Fold this sequence. Notes:
Elements: E1 2-9, E2 16-26, E3 29-34, H1 45-51, E4 55-61, H2 79-92, E5 99-103, H3 105-115, E6 122-125, H4 133-152, H5 155-162, H6 165-172, H7 184-196, H8 200-206, E7 221-226, H9 235-243, E8 248-252, H10 264-274
Parallel strand pairs: 3-4, 3-5, 5-6, 6-7, 7-8
Antiparallel strand pairs: 1-2, 2-4
Amino acid sequence: MSATVSFSLPSxxxxxxxxxxxxxxxxxxxxxxxxxxxxxxxxxxPVVHILAAERDVIAVDLPGFGESxxxxxxxxxxxxxxxxxxxALCEALEIDRPHVAGNSLGGLLALExxxxxxxxxxxxxxxxxxxxxxxxxxxxxxxxxxxxTARRMPVPAVERLSRTAxxxxxxxxxxxxxxxxxxxxxxVAETLALVNAPGFDDxxxxxxxxxxxxxxxxxPVTVAWGTQDRLLLRRQGVRAKQMIPRSRLVRLPGCxxxxxxxxPALVAxxxxxxxx
Length: 276
């Protein structure tokens, strides 16, 4: 069930109130789930019920995405702000150093939380930040094209396309290897989430200078990459392993950029193994 929490965060212009939407289910050690740019927390729905059997699962709408409003004036949608926001969120929810799993932007944020020693373990699925500049420009171009196309499509057209496997492939085939597994309702909802995300442009703009360059000593790290990732190519996973040599690099056969619905059982197993 959806809930919101508000808390104060310092800014150069004085304290600002941040509100974050989330869903929480299950019992056990806490596990934070973070989605990618233009997505929403429902991207994790295919695996939440599996994870909730062993974890207290908190799926978050990042600021400016899903049901979370954008950051207030004086706060920017960059790593230097969003990471403290997530730390403050954990404090507000009385969560002490959760495990964290993230996809794409969420994977990068998960690694940054690990670097700040704010979490117990990190599982990153196709995390951003291990690209060359050419690969980054390609990925950003694809994301902008997806958003531009989605914004030009009337909602009835999106709903009509979502009713067939071929239509769902048109709408989401860039990020899923098996888009036919998404329900029509989920495809419509995530298309509208991409269209309506007020944090998209600022987040993408902040990403132009992002390059992950540090090891995470003392934190268990798993990096997982889909073999069919068409957005952040899987060779970036090799760079992640070289950058974080003690990390576990996992190959996800037949999975795309967002593997949670491509193979829910595998994704859940990778997260649980990495957080044990």
